[in-house]
Amino acid sequence: MLPFGGQGTNQAIEDGGAIGFLLVNVDNDTQLPQRLQLFDQLRRRRASRIQILSSVRASRESVVEEKIKPFMEDGVIFPNSFPARVSHDAGFDVYARSQEMLQLLFNSGDGEMFLDHQTTSSIKA
Ligand SMILES: Cc1cc2nc3c(=O)[nH]c(=O)nc-3n(C[C@H](O)[C@H](O)[C@H](O)COP(=O)(O)OP(=O)(O)OC[C@H]3O[C@@H](n4cnc5c(N)ncnc54)[C@H](O)[C@@H]3O)c2cc1C
User: Fold this and answer.
1) Model confidence over 78-91: pLDDT tens digits?
2) How close is the Cα of 8 to the center of ligand 1, in Å?
3) 87, 92, 93, 99 alpha-carbon torsion, rounded to 10°
4) What is the C-alpha to C-alpha distance for residues 45 and 37, in angstroms, rounded to an integer?
5) Does residue 124 register a pLDDT over 80?
6) N or C terminus: which one in the chain shows less Cβ crowding within 10 Å?
7) Pocket of ligand 1 contains residue 51 by CB under 6 Å
8) Which tens digits make up the pLDDT trace of 15-30?
């Protein structure tokens, strides 16, 4: 991540938010691999896109479009302009996405607890 993208610290903060959220109510280490896998799914592609984007100036995104393709995901539009890049980089809610992923895990029957409103509010605080 090159420093002038102004995203290195943001990604570190998002990482911290995601790991804090995704490890909620883990009470034994057998739950850890599944939760860490969620963290990887949530963070790897987004952080990789931003890492690659940080190598080009705003409005030059098309230069790295091919490089970014393996890291695209459903619901994400390739940011091919300055406003689109701001929206891609700054318009991401790491808590909301973490909550969605945990909910999917619990709904699949593999999860070990129900994530209620009180629990998620206390994590965000
Ligand atoms: C010159 C420069 C300018 C930058 N400017 C910006 C900017 O303007 N905006 C921006 O968003 N980002 C900027 N960045 C990037 C940003 O600083 C990093 O992306 C961010 O700090 C990464 O956070 P991190 O927690 O992943 O890693 P780090 O902040 O590097 O933290 C890792 C910590 O782990 C510790 N550690 C490492 N190994 C061990 C070990 N074996 N045992 C115990 N502790 C260990 C280290 O001492 C360190 O404290 C800049 C980076 C540089 C170098």
Assistant:
1) 999 989 998 999 99
2) 8
3) 140
4) 13
5) no
6) C
7) no
8) 999 999 999 989 999 9
d(CA 99, CA 105): 10
As a whole number of Å, the CA-based R_g of the chain is 16
pLDDT tens digits for range 89-100: 999 999 999 999
- C-beta of 9 in contact with ligand 1 (< 6 A): yes
Residue range(s) defining the domain that contains residue 68: 3-124
- Separation of CA 31 and ligand 1 centre (Å): 29
The residue to which tokens 């999917």 are assigned: 104
Tally of CB atoms within 10 A around 72: 13
CA count, 13 A, side-chain hemisphere, 82: 3
* Predicted TM-score of the model (pTM): 0.84
The number of domains in the chain is 1
